[in-house]
Backbone:
């Protein structure tokens, strides 16, 4: 038993470090990209990445989760490899079809996702990268299932590190255009594929077991809509900005999003720990009281963190990114960070759905949130530009959070005060917005933001006294 726990702990630590490392690499590339690319070129990069991330869901099509189930459901090694082989061929076929479509309809796709023709070649190059990465991802998945965690970390970090170095060198010494970034990604992917060639050769085949593949896809298909819904909420607004506004504003928005998602370096670790912790205490007599306290505490701490982001992020952004054309991104970072926090917070307040094994509503509510997001983008972006895109994200996540919380409370009631949660959230949002307003839209001294902090702190004191009073009555 101890050996299994040590392996789980070691693997979890390795993957956590890998997760943090890859996100840091991506974030630290932002000053380099903004140094060599203008806002419009960065907007092109944002749109291509958003487009290919959506296509990635189509290529994978939930087969990662399906493969995990069937791989560990069978004990026969040859049967395990047969599942891997068929998933690999499925992904190669889908990625190949998408690449062919891009070759023949490049200008149409360019008009669709950029609002203007002329970027079809970049889309095609990006889909070559997608094709190569679909193979790499499958082999690394196989490594994970064989508990070869060190190989996963080494290959993943090596590829991203190679791409980062080559992107910098190409931008500096070759051409300051977005296309060279994708050339760097192709070279990085090919270099890893060469190292993985023995495994690729082992799993590659022209013979597909269609009954087995059908079995995999039947399991996988229901998982796809939720993934697409998340993508719609977080990424589709870039295309609306391209159509209704400009690619330059997409670039500015992309910078804001990169800063806003840095908080996932903290929330992801809590997220990893929360599920096993919540499941481990669910049978305790005081479990619901513990959950209630955590609901409130996480929200209070999260809002404090968001106030810190709102206060200091303009100075950090101006220091990291000297180009003035990107400085307006600081207006939106704190509010976008609120959206990122809500996307994490729903996992905390949905504990009842996981305990009772009634998780289907999560997919349903995020599907509705995706539809809301599209409607908000159509209505808000033409009138409010980047603020419209920002509000569409936050309001969509807020709807999902509220709906999931209400449903979770119905199946597993946690005795948390709704009044306290609402007061903490509203006072935090008001304080956050007031900080943004003072720093970005007035000539007031930044010291005035202390008033926003004092207001929020005062509301937390009131909440604390209220909780203490209610506890004393009990």
Residues:
């Amino acid at each position: 038993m101890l050996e299994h726990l040590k392996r789980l702990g070691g693997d979890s630590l390795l993957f956590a470090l890998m997760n943090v490392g890859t996100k840091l690499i991506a974030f630290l590339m932002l000053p380099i990209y903004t140094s060599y690319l203008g806002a419009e070129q960065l907007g092109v990069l944002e749109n291509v990445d958003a487009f290919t991330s959506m296509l990635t869901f189509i290529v994978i099509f939930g087969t990662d989760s399906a493969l995990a189930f069937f791989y560990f459901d069978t004990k026969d090694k040859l049967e395990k490899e047969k599942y891997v082989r068929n998933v690999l061929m499925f992904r190669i076929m889908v990625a190949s079809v998408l690449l062919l479509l891009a070759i023949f309809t490049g200008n149409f796709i360019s008009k669709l996702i950029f609002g203007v023709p002329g970027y079809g070649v970049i889309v095609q190059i990006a889909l070559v990268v997608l094709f190569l990465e679909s193979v790499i991802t499958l082999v690394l998945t196989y490594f994970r299932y064989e508990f070869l965690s060190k190989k996963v970390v080494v290959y993943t970090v090596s590829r991203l590190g190679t791409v980062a170095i080559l992107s910098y060198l190409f931008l500096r010494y070759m051409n300051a255009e977005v296309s060279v970034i994708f050339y760097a990604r192709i070279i990085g992917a090919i270099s890893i594929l060469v190292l993985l060639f023995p495994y690729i050769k082992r799993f590659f085949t022209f013979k597909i077991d269609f009954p087995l593949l059908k079995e995999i896809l039947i399991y996988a298909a229901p998982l796809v809509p939720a993934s697409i819904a998340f993508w719609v909420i977080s990424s589709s607004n870039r295309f609306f900005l391209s159509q209704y506004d400009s690619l330059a504003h997409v670039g500015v928005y992309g910078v804001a999003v990169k800063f806003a998602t840095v908080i996932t370096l903290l929330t992801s670790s809590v997220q990893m720990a929360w599920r096993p912790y919540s499941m481990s205490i669910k049978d305790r007599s005081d479990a619901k009281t513990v959950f209630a306290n955590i609901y409130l505490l996480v929200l209070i701490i999260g809002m404090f963190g968001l106030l810190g982001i709102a206060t200091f992020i303009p100075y950090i952004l101006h220091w990291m990114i000297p180009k003035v054309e990107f400085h307006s991104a600081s207006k939106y970072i704190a509010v976008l960070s609120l959206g990122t926090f809500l996307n994490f917070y729903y996992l905390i307040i949905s504990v009842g759905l996981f305990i009772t094994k009634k998780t289907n509503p999560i997919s349903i509510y995020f599907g509705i949130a995706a539809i809301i997001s599209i409607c908000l983008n159509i209505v808000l972006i033409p009138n409010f530009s980047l603020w419209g895109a920002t509000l569409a994200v936050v309001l969509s996540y807020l709807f999902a959070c509220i709906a999931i919380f209400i449903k979770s409370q119905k199946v597993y009631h946690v005795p948390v005060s709704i009044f306290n949660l609402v007061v903490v959230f509203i006072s935090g949002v008001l304080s956050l917005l007031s900080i943004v307003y003072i720093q970005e839209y007035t000539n007031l001294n930044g010291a005035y933001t202390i008033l926003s902090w004092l207001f929020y702190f005062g509301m937390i004191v009131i909440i604390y006294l209220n909780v203490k009073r209610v506890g004393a009555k009990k």
User: Anything to note?
Assistant: Residues 154 and 456 are 44 Å apart (CA to CA). Residues 1-12 have pLDDT under 50 and may be disordered. The chain has 21 helices and no strands.
